[in-house]
């Protein structure tokens, strides 16, 4: 019954794992952004600021203070940028999973997985999972149904199926349903050619 379909369970599983990883990083990023004031007052952050201020490459202390302030201000911007990129990645991964539903359009799903991988970070763990799912979407194809005896149709020399040739023979013989001996021998002499 499901001949001609490929089970896309592996691609779906990789996509779901990638989405879960994205959501974990998104939640962590939001947590860090909302607790930015706490992080900036921590001893680790104070130590980083002191190292920036004591850097001998700065000519005066005002430049060092400006660099430390820029570092503190960029923390939130980097966090929101990471949040936006991972949200876009998650959206494309969800679109890919929707296209894998009932093996609807695996090539489009593969393209969505590639885009999701690019937005998740070109070589992060999540992006590698999305790339593997994309490759599987492009490579795995449905198997052709096996041709057993019930799928073969008898074809005569003119390329007509058995049913069509019988109807034509019936009209030639007057509709009695019997064939002449020549037509019968002609039918037996033809090689058996499957579709």
Automatic annotation (TrEMBL):
Annotated segments matching region Disordered: 149-195
InterPro entries the UniProt entry points to? DUF4064
Give the stretches traversing the membrane: 12-33, 77-98, 110-136
Q: Where is the composition biased (Basic and acidic residues)?
A: 149-172, 179-195
Keyword field = Membrane, Transmembrane, Transmembrane helix
Pfam families the record matches: DUF4064 (PF13273)
Q: Which residue ranges does the record assign to the DUF4064 domain?
A: 8-122
The protein depicted here goes by the name DUF4064 domain-containing protein
The lineage, from the top, is: Bacteria, Bacillati, Bacillota, Bacilli, Bacillales
């Amino acid at each position: 019954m499901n001949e001609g379909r490929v089970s896309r369970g592996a691609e779906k599983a990789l996509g779901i794992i990638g989405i879960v990883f994205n959501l974990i990083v998104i939640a962590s990023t939001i947590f860090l952004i909302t607790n930015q004031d706490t992080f900036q007052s921590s001893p680790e952050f104070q130590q980083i600021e002191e190292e920036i201020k004591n850097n001998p490459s700065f000519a005066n202390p005002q430049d060092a203070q400006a660099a430390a302030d820029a570092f503190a201000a960029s923390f939130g911007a980097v966090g929101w940028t990471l949040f936006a990129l991972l949200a876009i990645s998650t959206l494309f991964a969800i679109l890919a999973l929707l296209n894998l539903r009932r093996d609807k359009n695996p090539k489009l799903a593969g393209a969505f997985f590639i885009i999701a991988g690019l937005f998740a970070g070109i070589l992060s763990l999540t992006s590698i999972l999305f790339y593997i799912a994309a490759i599987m979407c492009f490579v795995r194809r449905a198997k052709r149904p096996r041709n057993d005896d019930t799928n073969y149709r008898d074809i005569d020399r003119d390329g007509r199926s058995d049913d069509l040739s019988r109807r034509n023979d019936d009209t030639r013989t007057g509709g009695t349903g019997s064939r002449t001996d020549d037509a019968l021998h002609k039918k037996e002499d033809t090689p058996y050619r499957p579709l």
